[in-house]
Automatic annotation (TrEMBL):
<feature type="transmembrane region" description="Helical">
    <location>
        <begin position="12"/>
        <end position="33"/>
    </location>
</feature>
<dbReference type="InterPro" id="IPR000515">
    <property type="entry name" value="MetI-like"/>
</dbReference>
<keyword id="KW-1133">Transmembrane helix</keyword>
<dbReference type="InterPro" id="IPR035906">
    <property type="entry name" value="MetI-like_sf"/>
</dbReference>
<comment type="similarity">
    <text>Belongs to the binding-protein-dependent transport system permease family.</text>
</comment>
<keyword id="KW-0997">Cell inner membrane</keyword>
<feature type="transmembrane region" description="Helical">
    <location>
        <begin position="75"/>
        <end position="96"/>
    </location>
</feature>
<feature type="transmembrane region" description="Helical">
    <location>
        <begin position="156"/>
        <end position="178"/>
    </location>
</feature>
<feature type="domain" description="ABC transmembrane type-1">
    <location>
        <begin position="71"/>
        <end position="283"/>
    </location>
</feature>
<feature type="transmembrane region" description="Helical">
    <location>
        <begin position="262"/>
        <end position="282"/>
    </location>
</feature>
<keyword id="KW-1003">Cell membrane</keyword>
<comment type="subunit">
    <text>The complex is composed of two ATP-binding proteins (UgpC), two transmembrane proteins (UgpA and UgpE) and a solute-binding protein (UgpB).</text>
</comment>
<protein>
    <recommendedName>
        <fullName>sn-glycerol-3-phosphate transport system permease protein UgpA</fullName>
    </recommendedName>
</protein>
<keyword id="KW-0472">Membrane</keyword>
<keyword id="KW-0813">Transport</keyword>
<dbReference type="InterPro" id="IPR050809">
    <property type="entry name" value="UgpAE/MalFG_permease"/>
</dbReference>
<keyword id="KW-0812">Transmembrane</keyword>
Length: 294
């Protein structure tokens, strides 16, 4: 017999969801509306003068070669962070799932990086890969790689990708590990008895059952790469050398707060928000069809 929750008061359901609705309106809907309104204005650096210019800020953006280049930089950065981060996390989770002795200690060490703030993560990896003081840079130099992220744009991109992956790998690891531990061992054992090897068992049983977790983490990691990596870029490369690591979210800050172009920065934030929403919708519409929930 199906059980249904019944509320004695008609107002109680609305009261229960009211806090979440209020938070969404205050911290998402209202700022989004404000950004959209401000993106159609031409303002001075202090916000004292403003003129309604409709879509001129957007026309200026898409005629700016440096802004268009930041799209390519952001795309490369996001693909590397999301793709490599998920692969590394899945590998670590698979190893952790097989550990018997010292499993709790092993898992604890893998979770710790998530507690570190993005700024600290950026500074940590900047020092590790410092061309003059960094121990990792010294190891690279010993094998013939002259590391210098200050002057080499490719090295700078690698630096922020490594830092961003290291910061997010713990979050991904937790979900992958929980997903692996929820898979019935009897299915894997039955496949092993039937002669399936480790790779066959993983591709035909484990990974399909992990597809809901993988899909969720894919969405989360793309949003993370677009929005939550600003502090890492600010603490390490500050968009340099040149504009080689100036991702979209950093360009919003750089043009708005350092360059004083408030209207242009608001237009950039609207474009960035639109891109993330479109990517999320596309993932739910097309990628989710390949997810197996049962």
């Amino acid at each position: 017999m199906e059980k249904r929750a019944r509320f004695k008061s008609a107002c109680l359901p609305y009261a229960l969801v009211a806090p979440q609705i209020i938070i969404t309106l205050l911290f998402f809907v209202w700022p989004a509306v404000q950004a959209l309104y401000q993106s159609m204005q031409l303002q001075d650096s202090f916000g004292g003068y403003s003129e309604f210019v409709w879509f001129d800020n957007f026309r200026t953006l898409f005629s700016d070669s440096t802004y268009l280049a930041s799209f390519q930089t952001t795309a490369i950065f996001s693909v590397l962070v999301a793709g490599c981060g998920l692969l590394l996390s899945l590998l670590l989770a698979a190893f952790a799932d097989r550990v018997i002795k010292g499993a709790a200690l092993y898992k604890t060490f893998l979770i710790w990086p998530y507690a570190v703030s993005p700024v600290v993560v950026g500074v940590l990896w900047m020092f590790l890969l410092s061309p003059t003081l960094g121990i990792v840079a010294h190891w690279l130099h010993a094998i013939g790689i002259d590391w210098d992220h200050v002057l080499n744009g490719r090295h700078a991109m690698i630096l922020i990708v490594i830092a961003a992956i290291w910061k997010q790998v713990s979050y991904n690891f937790l979900f992958f590990l929980a997903g692996l531990q929820s898979i019935p061992k009897s299915l894997i054992e039955a496949a092993a008895i039937d002669g399936a090897g480790p790779v066959k068992r993983f591709t035909s049983i484990v990974f399909p059952l992990l597809s809901p977790t993988t899909f969720f983490l894919l969405v989360v990691n793309i949003v993370y790469a677009f929005f939550d990596t600003f502090a890492i870029v600010e603490a390490t490369t500050q968009g340099g050398p040149g504009k080689d690591t100036e991702i979209l979210v950093f360009k919003v800050f750089n043009d708005g707060f350092k360059g004083g172009d408030l209207g242009g920065a608001a237009a950039q934030s609207v474009v960035l928000m639109t891109i993330v929403i479109v990517l999320t919708v596309v993932q739910f519409k097309y990628v989710e069809k390949k997810v197996q929930y049962a």
